[in-house]
């Protein structure tokens, strides 16, 4: 009976190991722990910078936005790529932009239903946290130290009250954190899904969704008067870059390939020889 039990345990272990997929990534607790911890720390520091940011100085506001003539001059000084967005202030668009933004946070968890990824849940979630923390640190520090008026600050129609236009929140146009965070989440999802399922026909749809969702967020953030086009474009590029590069930097090193090396020996006729050998592994 004891031998049968040991045999059953052995067979079960073999079966579990056989079913578990091989991850294309490698995780180092020391390296990645430091990386993630530093990113989280940077995020906290950046958040404190944002919290302590000053409102627009009344004299500065008056000099740049106080009269229609000064306001128009300030708009004219905006680069031509962004100028058209100055004065936008759609509150409905602002609310709509939060919907795909929020969905993008939980979207990567849907990948846990994929059998290949589910076998490595801890590693997958660790990479996701590391990616999001990296984007958060980059954004919060930048938003904390760079002053750029949001498009709604240029709205003198009366729809945007003066307190809102003068507040420190109005100086955080550069760059779009909503878009950067959304792009990190969606492109991370697409990258990891593709690495775990390189032959899946669904990849095209996963990548299409990854590209469209942050673009939609960016459109509504511009319409809301929260950001200019360049703010959205930079957020998109940086967010997508982090979402792709963090998993890529964790890819296992590929030892396959072509190698050429010297060799020698004796033939079956007894003759000694030296030569160059070529080996292809895959």
From TrEMBL:
Signal listed as a keyword: yes
Keyword annotations from UniProtKB, A to Z: Signal
Pfam families, alphabetized: PAP2 (PF01569)
InterPro entries: PAP2/HPO (IPR000326), PAP2/HPO_sf (IPR036938)
Keyword Nucleotidyltransferase among record annotations: no
Classification via Gene3D superfamilies: Phosphatidic acid phosphatase type 2/haloperoxidase (1.20.144.10)
UniProt signal peptide: 1-18
Domain Phosphatidic acid phosphatase type 2/haloperoxidase, first and last residues per copy: 125-247
SUPFAM superfamilies cross-referenced by the UniProt entry: Acid phosphatase/Vanadium-dependent haloperoxidase (SSF48317)
Domain of life: Bacteria
Database matches in SMART domains: acidPPc
Protein name: Phosphatase PAP2 family protein
Taxonomic source organism: Rasiella rasia
